[in-house]
Structures are given as structure tokens and as C-alpha cells.
């Protein structure tokens, strides 16, 4: 489950300066707050995306490679059956929401 914005903001170290035209300038309190809010909103969006779509990434990482699929299709028989079983296991492990 995604963290709250306040939890996420608390996990960041507050920025203290920015560089303008090659010169380091201290941030105002408003700029620090705006930067932390922006970082927290981006992290929350990433967490929500991971929750909604993580199963896709996990499946892609676990599926047999394209090379294995091609070999199974060309070889047929038990090789193809084993490939289909491996793919089904991945689908069961990481089901669609």
C-alpha cells in the first residue's frame, strides 16, 4: 500500500540550496516546502503505479525469454509443453488485478 504524502515527505532530506547561473543560492522556506511536495507527489505516483501495474513488470521479468519461446516453437513436443507450463506458473504467481 502506498505511503501518505506526509510519510513520504518525512523520508526526504530537505534541500538547502539551488544553483542559479552557476551560483549557489539558499532556498526560501517556501521553495523547500514546494520542492519536498513535488518530490513526495512524484514518489506517491510511482508507488501507486507500482501497485497498479507491478504485476506486468514481474511477469515480464519471469516469463521465458523470446529465444526460449522460439526454440520451443521450433522444437515442439515436450519443450513446448514445458514452456506453456512455465508461462502458466508465472501467470498464476502474478495474476492480473
Structure characterization notes:
- By secondary structure, this protein is mainly α.
- The model has no long low-confidence stretch (mean pLDDT 93).
- It has helices spanning 5-11, 29-62, 66-75, 77-93, and strands spanning 17-20, 23-26.
- Helix content is 70%, strand content 8%.
- The chain contains 4 helices and 2 strands; from the N terminus they run H-E-E-H-H-H.
- A two-stranded antiparallel ribbon has the order 1-2.
- The protein has 2 domains: 1-53, no CATH class; 63-97.
- A hairpin with a 2-residue loop joins strand 1 and strand 2.
- Helix 1 crosses helix 2 and helix 3 (66-75) packs antiparallel against helix 4 (77-93).
Features:
single chain; 97 residues; mainly alpha; two-stranded antiparallel sheet
Summarize the SSE layout with pairings.
Elements: H1 5-11, E1 17-20, E2 23-26, H2 29-62, H3 66-75, H4 77-93
Antiparallel strand pairs: 1-2
The total of beta strands comes to: 2
- End-to-end gap: 14 Å
- The secondary-structure element order is HEEHHH
Largest sheet: 2 strands, antiparallel
Number of domains: 2
Mean pLDDT: 93
Tally the helices: what do you get? 4
Q: Tell me which oligomeric state these chains represent.
A: single chain
Overall structural class, as computed from helix and strand content, comes to mainly alpha
Give a short synopsis of this structure:
The protein is mainly alpha-helical. The chain has four helices and two strands, in the order αββααα. α1 crosses α2.
